Amino acid sequence: MAILENKIQLIRKDEWQNIALVGPVKLPIKQGEFEATFKWYSWTAVNKNQTKGQVVESVQSMNLAFGQQSSVLVYGDFGNDDDALIRMHSICHTGDIFGSQRCDCGYQLHESMKMIVEHGCGAIFYLADHEGRGIGLFSKSLAYLLQEEAYDTVEANHALGFEDDTRSYDDAIRVLQALRIKPVTLITNNPKKLAALQASGLLADGHIPLWGGLTETNAHYLQTKVQKSGHIGEVQKLTV
Question: Known catalytic residues?
Answer without folding.
Answer: 165, 167
